[in-house]
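[job 4471] stage=fold_predict status=RUNNING
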Amino acid sequence: MSVDFTKGSAYAKNARAKKMMLWFGIISLIMGFAGWTSAFIVSSSREDWFENFVLPTPFWYSTAVIVLSSVTFMLAKASVKKGLQRQTTLFLVSTLLLGVLFIGLQFSGFSEMIAMGYYFTGPTSNVTLSYIFLIAFVHILHLVAGLISLIVVIVNQLRGKYNEEEYLGLSLGETFWHFLDLLWVYLVLFFYFFA
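[job 4471] inference complete, writing structure tokens
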């Protein structure tokens, strides 16, 4: 009796390749943000460095929101593993809405900074605040990429592409989302202790 392992091994190879590509992307993003936060620390020795900056409250609210969104994404994966399709969709849509709320709160935080007279560039700008604007905004851009991948996951979920045994796309989306979550938690704590 001959057993055909080609399909299973092709699927496994494809899954490994996609996971490896995702992790290469994540590692390159970690290196980029490590570079920016290192530059932030090095620049803090400048004479014009702004001391004791307090992050606006919406940044803290957004932190709670993105952590909650990681929980809903985990619940979506747990649901698909149990074959609970409707529940999976509900948790994925909840994650999407929380992601949009996160971005809204981030812009609210930026608005508060501008209302305090702090700008990214111009005569009233400051190198400290320029770094905060830049790093937070670049994170938002990556979160938009996360939202786009999440929309793809939701569309695939609605088309019935995921089930108890095959949910690679959802799993990859979840990994990227958790990375973005942990990255923001790191950044907000970094700003709290070093700004």
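[job 4471] summary: The chain has five helices and no strands.
[job 4471] exit 0
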